[in-house]
Amino acid sequence: MVYNLINEKWIPVRRANGKKEFIAPWQVTDDIGSNPIVSLDANRPDFNGALIQFLIGLVQTTIAPKKDRNWMTRFTEPPKVDELKTAFEIVSRAFNVDGDRPRFMQDFKPDKWESNEIDKLLVEIPGDKTIKDNTDHFVKRNSIKRMCLACSALALFTLQTNAPSGGQGHRVSLRGGGPLTTIILGDTLWQTIWLNVLNESDFLDKYGNSSLIDDASIFPWMGPTHTSEKDQLTTPEHVHPAHMFWGMPRRIFLDIKSGESGNCDLCNQNSSNLITSYITKNKGTYYGSSWHHTLTPYRHEKSDLISIKGQPGGITFRHWLGFVQNDRKNGNEPAVVVHTFRLQRQPSLENKKTLQLWAFGYDFDNMKVRCWYEGKMPLINVEDNIRENYESAIEQLIRVSELISDNVRKYAKEAMFTRPGDVKGDFSFIDNRFWNNAEPEFYTTLEKLRVAFSDGTDTIVEIKLKWLNTLFRIGEQLFDEYSQSNQIDVADPKRIALAHRNLRKFNQKNNKQIMKILYLPDKPTISKNK
Amino acid sequence: MEQNRSLSFVSNQYARDVLLEWWKGLENSRGDRAALRRCHNPTEVAFNPAFHRLRMKFKHFGYVNPESLALIAGILSHVRSNNEKVHFAEQMAAPRSGSNNACVSGLRFRRLLKLYDNELFEPLIRIVHMLDGTVNIPVLANSIYWWNVNESTRKEWAFKYYEKAPSES
Ligand SMILES: [Zn+2]
After folding, report:
1. Predicted ipTM of the assembly
2. Cβ neighbours of A165 (radius 10 Å)
3. Which of A1, A239, A399, B56 is deepest in the core (most CB within 10 A)?
C-alpha cells in the first residue's frame, strides 16, 4: 500500500472539546456543527506552521472560490467532507510519499547521490561542520534516528518550504531562507484555511503563468526538476501560480529501502516503515527573487520585492507596520491575504469581529537555525471613513516606540560600560523587553484611539501623551534594571547618573523629534499629568 | 509596623513641620544644642533630653525607628539654616564660591554612597560643615531615615548630584 497524504489520516488536530486525533486533509470540516476541529496539534510548532500552509495550499490549488460571494458562502457554510474528498482526490496522485516515482516533494530522477541520516531533514539538526566545530549546543545529536512516513513527509515539506541556504548550491526556499509567514486565524480550522485563500481569478491573474496547467507546473516533483547547474532561475513565468505552495528547492529522495519497524523518534507512533536516511544533490530549483507568495509580507526595494524573514527578537507589535498595515516609510507591506481580508472580507463579516493574525518563522543565521518565533496580533475592523487617520496615528505610536526603545538601549549601555561604543554583542534583549512590556498597553491604546476617531472626540493628543508616558515609564524601569542603578553604591554612580541624565533629557514630551513624530502641538495642552 | 513606611519628612507635611519646629527650637535652648553637637555617635544623642522631646513628638506616627531619628537629630544640630529650594545632593554638587569644583568632591560623594546608615554620622556632619551649615533639612532627614531600606535614596542622590556636576570626578 502506498502512503498517500490525501488518503491517510496523518494530520494531528484538536477538536473544540479538546480531543486530539489524526485526520486526512479532507476531514477538516468533519462534525463542524457540533464538535468542530479548531486547530492543528503537531508536537513541534514549526510543523504546525508547515501543516497550515499545506492545507491552505491544497485548498487554494483545488477549490478556491470563484468570487467574493462564493468565498462568503463557504465561510458561513463550509463544504461537506465528501465534497472536499472529491476535490482533493483529483490531485492525490501527486501526494504519494513512497512507492513508485513521482513522490511528494522528492526528486523525479534520483541517482547515486550523497546519503544523509534522516534527522538532517530537520532544520535544527546541525550540519557536519557544526558537529565538527562542536557548536550544536541546543540540539541533541543522535536523538532522532528513525522517522515514520508522515513525519518524514512533513519534515520534507517543512524543509522545502523554509529552506535556508545550504551552502554549495543547496538552494533556498521559494521565498528565500527562513521566510516569515502570517496566517489569519478563524474559530475553526476550516475558517483558518479559508480566510487565507484568495479568490481564484485574483490568484491566477497575478502570481504566475496560469496557462501552464500540467501537473509538473503546479507540483514540481511530477516532472524533471528545473535544475540550476548554471544558476538558471525558475520564475513565476515558468510555472502555474499554485506552484508557490509547493516549491521544491532541494533535490531529495527518501531511502525507503532502509525501512524498519518500531516507534517513530519524532511522534512516537508505531510504524512498520521507519525511514533512516535519504539521498540528496545540490543545484536544485533556483527560484530567485521575483516571487510574491500570498502568505508572506514583503518589502519593496527599488523594483524588487524582498520577502520578510524571521528575525531575532520575536514578534510583537513592533511588527504591526508591515504585518498588519503598510509601513510606508520602509516600504513594507503585509501579506496579500491580510490586505484582502482587511479591505474586502472583514467589513462584510457578520459582527465584523476582531480576528488574530498568527505570524511565525525561523530565525536563521545563515545555515544555522537560531530560533523559531511566533506571535499573534489582532486584526481590528476599522470603518473606512476613519481608516486613514486611525492608521496614521497607529504608525506614529509605533515610530515613537522605536525611537524610545533605541534610546533606552543606548543609554542603558552607556550606564553599563565605560566605553559603550567599543562593546560588541547583541543588546537587542533590551529592546525585546521594552516591546513586550509595552504590548498590553499598546492594544488598549489602539482601542481608545479607534473609539476616539469613531466618536470624533477631541482626545487624540491626550491619548498620544498617555502612550508617551507609558513608554517613558517602561524605559525608566528597564534602564534601572540594566544599568544596575539599584546597586548604585557598587556600580559606578557617576556613569549611571550621567547616562540617566541623557535618557531623561531625551525622553521628554517637548523633545523635538518626539513632537514631530506624534504631531504634537507646540505647547502640549495637557501637560498636567506628570 | 506598616504605617511607618509612609513616614516622610518631605511629602508628609505634618512630619516635616514637627521636625522643623523641633530644629528651630534648638535656637532657644542653646545648651541642648551644644550638648547634641558634642555627641560622637547616635547612642550619645539618644541620651540627650532634646532628643527625647523629638521622640515624643513623633509618638503619633506609630513606630518610628529611634536609631534613625537619633542620627537625624545629631546631624541636624549642626545645621544653621534650612534651604528647601534645591535638593541636598545638588547642594553638595554646587560649586564653592570662587571655584569650579563642587562643595563636596566626586570622590567624597562616591565614598559616602558606599556607607551603611550606622556609618553616616560623622561623614554627614562634616558635609554639613562643608556646606556652611545651609542644607535642605527635609530631604536630608528623609534620606537618612530611608538610607538602607532601598537603594532609591542613593540613586536619587547620584542622579541629582551628577545632573548638577557632570564633570566632577
Ligand atoms: Zn512520526
Report:
1. 0.73
2. 16
3. A239
User: In this complex, do A500 and B159 lie within 8 Å of one another by their Cβ atoms?
Assistant: yes
Q: Is the CB of A489 less than 8 angstroms away from the CB of B114?
A: yes
d(CA A184, CA A202): 18
When the pLDDT of each residue in chain A is averaged and rounded to a whole number, the result is 91
- CA–CA distance, A360 with A335 (Å, rounded to integer): 13
- Burial class, B66, CB count within 10 angstroms (exposed 0-12 / middle 13-18 / buried 19+): middle
Inter-chain touch A497–B110, beta carbons under 8 Å: no
Which of A96, A125, A106 lies closest to A265 in space, CA to CA?
A: A125
- Give residue A283's identity as a one-letter amino acid code: K
User: And the C-alpha cell for B1?
Assistant: 509596623
How far apart, in Å, are the Cα atoms of A120 and each of A3, A51, A214, B47?
22, 19, 32, 80
CA distances from B166 to A509, B55, B103, B143 (A): 23, 39, 14, 22
Q: Does B63 touch chain A (CB under 8 A)?
A: no
Q: What is the pLDDT of residues A19-28, one digit of tens each?
A: 999 999 999 9
Provide the β-strand partners of residue A298.
Answer: A307, A333
Query: In a mutagenesis test of the B interface, which of A488, A505, A507 is the best target, namely the one with the most B β-carbons within 10 Å?
Result: A488
Mean pLDDT of B46-72: 90
- Chain A contact for B154, CB < 8 A? yes
Residue A200, pLDDT above cutoff 50: yes
Whole-number Å distance, alpha carbon A98 to ligand 1 midpoint, is 15
Q: Which member of B154, B159, B166 has the closest CB to residue A489?
A: B154
Strand partners, A309: A179
For residue B111, the distance in angstroms to the closest alpha carbon of chain A comes to: 8
Q: Residue A523 — pLDDT band, cuts 50, 70, 90?
A: low
pLDDT tens digits, A457-491: 889 999 999 999 999 999 999 998 888 776 766 67
Nearest CA in chain B to A486: B151
* pLDDT of the residue at B63: 81
CB contact under 8 A, A497 and B158: yes
Amino acid A134: pLDDT: 43
What string of DSSP letters covers A123-182?
TTS--HHHHHHT--TTS-TTS---B-HHHHHHHHHHHHHH----STT-PPPTT-SSB-EE
Name the one residue in this structure whose C-alpha cell is 489520516: A9
Residue A482's closest CA among A467, A504, A499?
A: A499
The structure's pTM equals 0.83
Mean pLDDT of A428-433: 89
Find the residue in B nearest to A483 (Cα): B155
CB contact under 8 A, B106 and A485: no
Q: For the CA atoms of chain A, what is the radius of gyration? A: 25
